[in-house]
Specification:
Elements lengths: L3 E14 L2 E14 L3 E5 L6 H8 L7 E6 L2 E2 L5 H11 E4 L11 H6 L7 H10 L14 H13 L5 E5 L7 H14 L4 E6 L10 E6 L2 E5 L10
Helix pairs in contact: 4-5
Length: 227
């Protein structure tokens, strides 16, 4: 069994504006292990959005390889990438993207490959939610993020990608959510992109993205990265 869940090998992403080339990502190398919680710190404009679009297979690199669970995905068709994204990758957004006209259970079941109410209830219990009949506007922001986490987990993905998942949470709710992330990493490897340096204490691996370049920090201390 492959112990490497996500790999970037010499990945570049370049955009063209007329004759001008913009290198959004520059020679990115990354390796995420199974059962790990990983955080990429970066400010606005650092390349985080581009990076997440590549990692979640919403976009393809200009150069280099992206490998998930041993499979090179760089040259797959949109349909093939979409299938893998649905079955192998869970995504959590800063603003949870819940459908307001669906209740908690329905929101979680929506992306299921094989709809299973009992499994959905079990996953919701894993994230500490039992009132499955409520609608998003009846929940706190923290509870909405728990629903979003359950939805990301529902197809048993090997990789969960979270884009600023604590961006709208207070200190107490952030601690709760990150401790929950630490527990579920044993089912899915987690990659978080954030500009909140305080999250570094929760991770197994810490990376820093600046001007399209990625640096790994062996000590997991954001201060040593001049963040």
């Amino acid at each position: 069994m492959n112990n490497n869940i996500l790999e970037f090998q010499e990945v570049w992403k370049t955009y063209k504006d007329g004759k001008t080339e913009l290198h959004a990502l520059k020679d990115i190398n990354l390796l995420l292990k199974k059962n790990s919680l990983n955080i990429i710190l970066g400010s606005s404009g650092s390349g985080k959005t581009t990076f997440l679009n590549l990692a979640s297979l919403l976009d393809t690199p200009t150069k280099g390889k992206i490998i998930i669970n041993g499979q090179n995905l760089s040259n797959l068709s949109k349909i093939e990438r979409s299938k893998i994204r649905r079955t192998e990758i869970g995504i959590i957004y800063q603003r949870n993207n819940l459908f307001p006209y669906l209740n908690v259970l329905e929101n979680v079941m929506l992306p299921m490959v094989s709809p299973d109410k009992n499994k959905s209830i079990t996953v919701l219990e894993t994230v500490g939610l039992t009132e499955t009949h409520k609608f998003p506007d009846e929940l706190s922001i923290e509870e909405q993020q728990r629903v979003a986490m359950a939805r990301a987990m529902i197809n048993d993905p090997i990789l969960i990608i979270a884009d600023e998942p604590t961006g709208e949470l207070g200190k107490k709710s952030t601690k709760m959510l990150m401790n929950l992330m630490k527990r579920i990493k044993y089912k899915s490897t987690i990659l978080i992109a954030s500009n909140n340096a305080n999250l570094s204490g929760y991770c197994d691996e810490l990376f820093f993205l600046k001007d399209g370049k990625l640096k790994k920090n062996p000590g997991n201390n954001y201060k040593s990265l001049n963040y």
